[in-house]
Amino acid sequence: MTTSTVIVIVVVVVVVLAVAVVAGLALNRRRRISLGERDEAQQEDAVKGYRAGGGISLSSGGGATTAAPPEHPVGERTEVEGQPGVGDDAAVPRDSERRGIVDVPLPDGQGSTATAEPVERPGTEAPGTEAPDTAAPETEQAPAEEDRVAEEVPAQRAEPAPEPEPAEPEGVEEIEQIEPTAGRLERLRGRLSRSRSTLGQGLLGLLGAGDLDEDSWEEIEDTLLMADLGAATTTEITERLRTEIASRGVRTADDARALLREVLVDALGPDMERSVRALPHGDPANGGKPAVVLVVGVNGTGKTTTTGKLARVLVADGRTVLLGAADTFRAAAVEQLATWGERVGAEVVRGKEAADPASVAFEAVDRGGETGVDAVLVDTAGRLHTKTGLMDELGKVKRVVDKRAQVDEVLLVLDATTGQNGLTQARVFSDVVDVTGIVLTKLDGTAKGGIVFQVQRELGVPVKLVGLGEGPDDLAPFEPGAFVDALLD
Ligand SMILES: Nc1nc2c(ncn2[C@@H]2O[C@H](COP(=O)(O)OP(=O)(O)OP(=O)(O)O)[C@@H](O)[C@H]2O)c(=O)[nH]1
């Protein structure tokens, strides 16, 4: 072997070694970056207050799949008649552990898939009868792409799909008499009797009794805590009462009432903006856009009922409404909403059972724009805030609608009888869909009306409406003064 051959061999070996070292370093670095990214994602989940990957069945994200969608778990649901009682279904969630996400494809540009079923017209069909499907036919499942939905549905619409006849809802003449919305809280104040006797009367009794020793102050605190005002609000109210009593004194029962009223009303943030943003942008008859309201919450809190009641409020105000039945998990909810629609002459866009709720919501908003209604109210399926997959699904509903129209109001419906749990729910829902207003239902069934104070304080989101019964007009605007009066009188 010549010297030059040896040199060549040495050079080759050195080069090979150098390449190996560089490649090894690069690989090592890449691994570290990908770990870092995952850590970040996990942190984000932790901030949102729930953890990802908790046994939720998700469909494959990459490429088209021919796998059949998971069987819809309607049969697993514990409620069978669609009429849960006050507070009971919060304890027995209707989406069981085994419930998976039903990822039904959204409409795409080839007209391959559509899941929403427009359009049921009041007066033309009995509730439960399916409206003719004007959307393109269903095909194999493809991954649902939010962006694609927003961009391609217009293209799909360019295809001559059989459009439903634009017609005036025939049920209009049969619209029920709707209670005037003004003064409802006063009219329904008797429904707060349970909270009144424990919170209002309890506090008045203690404050009006004269000299207050430490035991009395403890009792005041207990009364506030028992009514679900929460520790922070309780401390704040007690301290304010102490200060005011020390500075101005309370001699009569009237003094006690006046002071208590002032302190409680102040704690309810009387200046918060409580109007429900359900009025259209411009004149829908002349190119204006309908308002879009999304109604969200856990199972059985009263979302469908509230959507129906709110439709009545709007109709009573001379507005036209379209209802989107995006609660595709519970067949009874769709029927329920259809009945509410019929009663006020509102069109209902419904999805097939197990349809993707985002698709139904999208169709509803689209249809509302076409027909020029003032407001589109979208009822979503109840979901446990602890199920990451379900919350993601809700986030998707909002994002898909956002691409089509501005979502003006996201109303979180909370069942007042569930107390602290409602607060946890509120936090998670707020993280996922930017809640803009709270509807506190079933206040008629609880002595814990104090949850109103807590939920606003914790979230900084106003309670806009309160549910005070199962009747169609038992939905009242929340007014701090009238509410406190109902507790104290
Ligand atoms: N007492 C009382 N009952 C109410 C109120 N609001 C709703 N309900 C009742 O609560 C029950 C559940 O209401 P729904 O509207 O079906 O609840 P939901 O949130 O749509 O249920 P899911 O779609 O399954 O999540 C029904 O029996 C309603 O009549 C209220 O303010 N007071």
From TrEMBL:
Reaction equation(s) it catalyzes: GTP + H2O = GDP + phosphate + H(+)
Chief location bin: membrane
SMART domains: AAA, SRP54, SRP54_N
Biased composition (Gly residues): 51-64
Residues of the SRP54-type proteins GTP-binding domain: 462-475
Compositionally biased region (Basic and acidic residues): 91-101
Record's compositionally biased regions (Low complexity): 124-142
Entry superkingdom: Bacteria
Spans traversing the lipid bilayer: 6-28
Keyword Nucleotide-binding appears in the UniProt entry: yes
Composition bias type Acidic residues, residue spans: 165-177
Record's subcellular location: Cell membrane; Cytoplasm
Region (Disordered): 51-194
Residues that hold GTP according to the record: 297-304, 379-383, 441-444
Pfam families in the cross-refs: SRP54, SRP54_N
Annotated membrane topology: Peripheral membrane protein
Protein family membership: Belongs to the GTP-binding SRP family. FtsY subfamily.
Subunit architecture: Part of the signal recognition particle protein translocation system, which is composed of SRP and FtsY.
Function: Involved in targeting and insertion of nascent membrane proteins into the cytoplasmic membrane. Acts as a receptor for the complex formed by the signal recognition particle (SRP) and the ribosome-nascent chain (RNC).
PANTHER family, per the entry: SIGNAL RECOGNITION PARTICLE RECEPTOR SUBUNIT ALPHA (PTHR43134:SF1)
The protein, known as: Signal recognition particle receptor FtsY
